[in-house]
Structure formats: structure tokens, C-alpha cells
Structure prediction request, 230 residues.
Amino acid sequence: MKAQQESDSESKCLIIGRAIHCLMLEPQGNFFNQFVIAPEIDKRTKEGKAIWADLQKTGKSILSADDADLVFDLEMALRNNDTINDLLSEGEGEKELYANIEGVECKGKLDWYRNGIIVDLKTVQDASAAGFAKQCAQYHYDFQASFYSSLARQNGLKVNHFIFVCVEKTAPFLTATYTATPQVIENGTKKYKQALKIWKECHELNQWRGYPTGIQELTLPTWAEVNYDN
Prediction:
């Protein structure tokens, strides 16, 4: 049951992320072609199960009423930021790119591109400078910024800035924008080049790296050690 709950939670996060990307980065009208908002129902009842089955038959991603409200709140917060509006006032959204990088066939999709600027939209827990920097390191956004910049240049696109547009997922849905510094890009370049090197080696040898197969010693991190001396 716990594993199922975690899977459902992950799916919910992915759907919300795709929904806000659709609202902000795709032409108007696309949202209701891709998503349907579910009414308040009890899926344990016969009636509720029937309604849910009908929603699934649409082939669209299903948002609960609460999740839809959240998505529209996120959209409003983003559109109330003049800097973000200016960044998205011109350009192209969801731009797919393909290139050979470090001998590996690669592909990616830019959230938004406009005349030398790549914009990447992130829904985050903490959009403060310190908070987002921590998430950038934790989720390897530096890897993403450098890799997408290289992918764009391989396609003949000018890249002067990689800008993260952030919106917090909880009220009051604060927003912020950050440009990736040369240090961020350099750090990300080291990461993606090493990742591509490992992938290429594994693919050529058909030997995929994993954890050691032997028995290893387990030690606890320092913060988990118990001290009852006092």
C-alpha cells in the first residue's frame, strides 16, 4: 500500500508539472485538449467508479478539482511576475532538439527559447536563492542547464543565458528567476560529459554499472550516532 501511495504521489506531481508547463508554454486551448478536471467523486462507489472510467476513456490526463485549482494558482502567480511575462512574450515553447554530443546521440526539449535565452520552468518547494541553489545541487539542474545549452548550440542556436523560472508549490506561490552562472554551467558540463562517457562505455561493452555484488560494511552517518553519556 505504501509503495502504491508513493507511486500515485509521483504521478500526481508529474501531472501537475505537465499541466503548468502546458498552460504557460503552449498555445491557448491546448490545456483542455490534454487534461480533464474530475468532479468531486467517491471512487469507492459504483457511481464514482463509472464516472472515473468515463474520464479515463477520454485519453486525457486527469486532474482532481483541488489539483486543477493549484495549477491555475501557479499560472496566475507566474503571470503576475513582469520579468517572467517579458521572458515568455517572444520565442518558442517545447522546442525539441537532437544532436551527437561526445559521440552519443542525444535529444532534449527546451521549455522555452527566445533569441539566445533558454528558459526552464520549475515548480519548487523553496524559490529563495539559498533554497533553489540547494535544489539545483540535489536534482542536478546544473547538469540540465549545461547539457541543454550544448544541445542548443549543436543545433546552431545562440545561447547567452540559461534562466530558471521558479514558482513555489504552496501558497502564496512565490516566484523568482535565476540565471545560471558560468560556475553552474562549468559544474554541469563536467557532470554531463562524465555521464555520457559512462553511458557510451557501458553501451559499447554491454556491461552496465551497478552496486558491488559482494557484502559491504554498513556504517551510519555521524548525525545518526546515539550519545547517551549526558
In short: Confidence is low (pLDDT under 50) at residues 1-10. Residues 2-25 form the longest helix (24 residues). The chain is about 45% helix and 20% strand.
